[in-house]
Design brief:
This protein has 249 residues and is of the alpha/beta class. The chain is built from six helices and eleven strands. It has helices at residues 25-35, 44-48, 86-95, 106-114, 164-201, 207-238, and strands at residues 3-8, 13-15, 39-43, 59-63, 80-83, 100-102, 120-126, 134-135, 145-152, 156-163, 241-242. α5 runs antiparallel to α6 (207-238). The two termini are 30 Å apart.
Length: 249
């Protein structure tokens, strides 16, 4: 699953002259925690705007038509891969079992969304309006999306959006998982019924009966665990609310 990480304000501003128009240290830490040990895909301008060079402890994949940086000091080349094709960037990450996160800028976001390469967006929605010259596109311009508010944090909130295509795939995967759980649950019920029948055949004071009862109790706990898992998986799907962008300007 390819994920966009983005922060924008109420006017969809994401940057101003290569800089972030606000300061939210907690959000930067969130970005670091999500991407460390994985791959961050970005455009050349975004890469060159990084104040301390390549992001450490993760693969920096830079998309450029020429594959060459315009400002190539040696300190900016370690842990960096230059590619021309966004799909090559994603494939490179998956081939190395790295989760691909797309981090901008505006044209990179638009290209990935237009090509249907994004399955999830984790957005920091900042309250207020700021001066800026780059924007995050409105999702109604692309395929259907559904969103869920994950955290409300005063000056901003974290919202997770899933593409309906990805959600359909997730539901299909869930159906398969539930089918497996259901089969195991049915098998456990049959085993439980057999144990109950054996318990009824023995004298209540016999050691065999006590052993069977102990096994029956363990089996009941396992059945309850399977029931809870099925319920949680079902409720997880109900948590996603229809995406409603009522600020279509």
């Amino acid at each position: 699953m390819t994920t966009i990480l983005v922060a924008y304000d109420e006017g969809r501003i994401i940057g101003n002259d290569g800089r972030i128009p606000w300061s939210i240290p907690a959000d930067l830490r969130r970005f670091q925690n999500l991407t460390t040990g994985n791959a961050v895909i970005m455009g050349r301008k975004t890469f060159e705007s990084l104040p301390h060079g390549p992001l450490p402890d993760r693969m920096n994949i830079v998309i450029s038509r020429t594959r060459l940086p315009t400002k190539p000091p040696e300190s900016r080349t370690e842990g960096v891969l230059w590619v021309c094709d966004p799909q090559d960037a994603i494939q490179f990450a998956w081939d190395r079992q790295l989760k691909p996160f797309v981090s901008g800028g505006e044209q990179i976001y638009r290209h990935f969304l237009h090509k249907g390469l994004i399955h999830k967006i984790i957005a920091t929605e900042v309250k207020g309006r700021h001066e800026g010259d780059t924007y995050f596109p409105r999702l109604y311009e692309y395929e259907g999306w559904t969103g869920q508010v994950m955290e409300e944090l005063g000056a901003y909130r974290i919202v997770e959006y899933l593409s309906l295509r990805a959600l359909r795939q997730q539901r299909n995967d869930l159906k398969q998982q539930l089918a497996i759980v259901g089969e195991k649950y049915s098998a456990l019920r049959k085993e439980r019924d057999k144990l109950i029948a054996k318990v009824l055949q023995y004298n209540s004071s016999s050691s065999d009966t006590n052993a069977l009862r102990t096994k029956l109790q363990a089996l009941r706990k396992k059945l309850n665990a399977y029931e809870q898992r099925a319920i949680q998986e079902y409720r997880h799907q109900q948590d996603y609310l229809p995406y409603d962008d009522d600020d279509r300007r």
